[in-house]
Amino acid sequence: DKILEAVNNNERILIYGDYDVDGITSVALLFSILREFTNNLYYYIPNRFQEGYGLNEEAIDIAFKNNFKLIITVDCGISSIHEIEKANNYGIDIIVTDHHQPQKDLPSATAIINPKCDKNYPFKELAGVGVSFKMAQALYLKLKKNQEDLWNLLDYVALGSIADSVPFIDENRILIKYGLKTLNQTKKEGLKALIMESGVNYGNLGTKEVNFALAPRINAAGRLGDSKLALELLLTDSEYKAKHLSRKLSEINKHRQEIGDNILREAREFASIQVKEED
């Protein structure tokens, strides 16, 4: 109801996510749904090095200065007690969607959607993007829209769930199964470009291809650069922009691999020197 109220009042809505694959796909999924109903929609992904994980006070200040009335967190927020209290003092409503284990005390959010907080919800192991998909289903149900229209978003759910290593059981097994089917025939320009750039077989993607080809490229943006590059890739409708961004992510991922290789080589050299000194 709060989301629909914000939409009907044309209030500014901010989707706030994490910088890993689960967080980025969660933002992409929810943004794709809500932009059907409002143009007053924005997203925010914190910089891993400057801001760290989760909802932060600087972002709350930015939201207040830019007159946002509603923040929806995805894949984070369940531990952000002080940050959400600050938002409340600013008059900003917060809806938390998360899948992480809650602390003893919960934040004073307008609403909390987390299967680990709901004793009546039978399955507790959804990824953050799985929780976002469930909220999208509830929104469609409220609006009496066709639930089948959400199926084309299951590729996001498969990507985020596999990358987050959730157990492949119960609801996750179903979401991932049909999500991979959707991914293998996706019409999204960003995902098509990412698949082609990764060198994997379009139409024959499984968990291995997601884990070792697609997910590392999405993750690399947040680990070395700007996660927004990956999110822009997932959301773009432009074939040209998709190809450009997918190449950029591959370059960043290659640089990440080179850094890792250098660290490993230096560690081995140091260990070899230590062994010689002990001898």
UniProtKB/TrEMBL annotation:
Entries under Gene3D superfamilies matching the protein: 3.90.1640.30
A Pfam family = DHH
Which positions fall inside the DDH domain? 12-160
Question: What GO molecular function terms would the record report?
Answer: exonuclease activity
Q: Which InterPro entries match?
A: DDH_dom (IPR001667), DHH_sf (IPR038763), SSDNA_exonuclease_RecJ (IPR051673)
Q: What PANTHER family does its record include?
A: SINGLE-STRANDED-DNA-SPECIFIC EXONUCLEASE RECJ
Entry protein name: DDH domain-containing protein
Question: What is the protein's species of origin?
Answer: marine sediment metagenome
